[in-house]
Specification:
Strand order of the largest sheet of chain A: 7-4-3-8-9-10
Distance between the termini of chain A: 63 Å
Oligomer: homodimer
Number of helices of chain A: 9
CATH architecture of the largest domain in chain A: 3-Layer(aba) Sandwich
Shape of chain A: globular
CATH superfamily of the largest domain in chain A: NAD(P)-binding Rossmann-like Domain
Largest sheet of chain A: 6 strands, parallel
Structural class of chain A: alpha/beta
Strand content of chain A: 15-25%
Order of helices and strands of chain A: HEHHEHEHHEEEEHEHEEH
Number of strands of chain A: 10
Chain lengths: 220, 220
DNA sequence: TAGATTGTTAATCGATTAACAATC
DNA sequence: TAGATTGTTAATCGATTAACAATC
């Protein structure tokens, strides 16, 4: 309510906040009470001046001469991002990938709850993954409405991804995370994040081959 | 050898190449022969002028008045990235996440081969995942040397991630992809990519809550 | 008071985009 | 020749960084 609403926060700032948050949470669990922008910069590989500038978009959090209080900075960033309260998500796909996501403790740490797991495979329906029983995909619309689910996670084979995205959108889901290696189209108003690990690898590969040129290895 | 080496290619360019590649591969499988920067821009949400500018860092690929030949552009981008030949990777962790990664067909599509899968758990050693038999982690150094592995994928529980990264680095691995939700330190000269899906979700959350403010929902 | 570190301005840097001549 | 689209320059825009006065 007292939020210092600013005209337009650059995307880069919003992308770095989760990074700061991760490091701050680590610091907190190490018992660190105060952190300077210089130290935070060292831990995140972000320029200290940029950290300070990023934070001032939302107000003044620090104390001159002292630094930032770790606990209250975590609190502020969580409030900015909206991770100060829990978010329920529906996971579509109960295979290995779905199971891995459901068991991922990083989710709970940030207030995400795997509320439902759905699949079309009769062999998987009824199976228990973590605390959740796999339900038929047909239940999607009902489940989303009943459990106040705001986020959908797509963990199905590529061929099924688009159809699942369509169903999620139809059920009112406005944020999706797509784990399948295929380009999925979503209607305007829906945010889709792709987590394609191969994309990352390809990107890295470029630098790998550059470096190999330098060190001159002559494998065929 | 004939590569138009340029002083410095901006990181952003290298990040977008895999994106173009993905879309181009999709176009190729749809039987599309030629594509303009305008069309490619529509499919990737990248400004057409930027696509053209990005590509000129590496030479001239297009034909004025016509556009880009899909097949040869794929070929050029793959050569630039280094994904025109295969890359062997070692996967550490044979749990659900490891199994999901091993079965991920996006990897093969881009020439990545899961050459070995390692784990410390005696119950998993000897298990078959895809075409590969899970081996003890102790074999790491030997396996990397024998199979000319250049990439390591960390798919172990958070508590074990740093130790695995250290072992991979010691075995000579210079590119790592970390799937565990923990900050891992690597020595200089090693590239580490973190694939933390929660980081993505947190980022998205910001925009989600902004939108909710607009539409004014009053859940508790 | 002296030392440290923020918040903020101003300077720098680089990336994005518009525009258009070159050319298929 | 007319239409289309590239390659490339120049203009715009925004993000990063350095510097420093404010202040704990």
């Amino acid at each position: 309510m007292t939020a210092q609403v600013e005209r337009r926060i650059p995307e880069g700032v919003i992308e770095r906040l989760p990074l700061y948050l991760n490091v701050l949470i680590q610091l907190r669990s190490d018992g660190v009470a105060t952190v300077s922008s210089a130290r935070l910069g060292g831990l995140t590989d972000v320029n200290p001046a940029q950290i300070r500038r990023d934070l001032t978009h939302f107000g003044s959090f620090g104390q001159r001469g002292i630094g930032y209080d770790v606990i209250s900075l975590i609190d502020r960033i969580q409030r900015i991002l909206g991770s100060d309260h829990t978010h329920r998500l529906v996971l579509v796909g109960a295979g290995n990938l779905g199971s891995a996501i459901a068991g991922y403790n990083g989710l709970r740490k940030h207030g995400f709850i795997v509320s439902s797991i759905l699949d079309v495979d009769p062999a998987k329906i009824g199976k228990r993954i973590g605390d959740v029983i796999v339900q038929p995909l047909d239940d999607l619309e009902r489940v989303v409405a009943e459990q106040q689910i705001s986020i959908g996670v797509i963990a199905v084979p590529p061929a099924a991804a688009q159809a699942v995205a369509d169903q999620l959108a139809a059920a009112g889901i406005r944020v999706m995370l797509n784990y399948s290696p295929v380009i999925v189209k979503v209607p305007a108003g829906v945010t889709l994040h792709n987590t394609d690990p191969v994309q990352e690898l390809l990107h890295t590969l470029y630098y790998l081959s550059r470096r190999e040129d330098d060190t001159a290895s002559s494998a065929l």
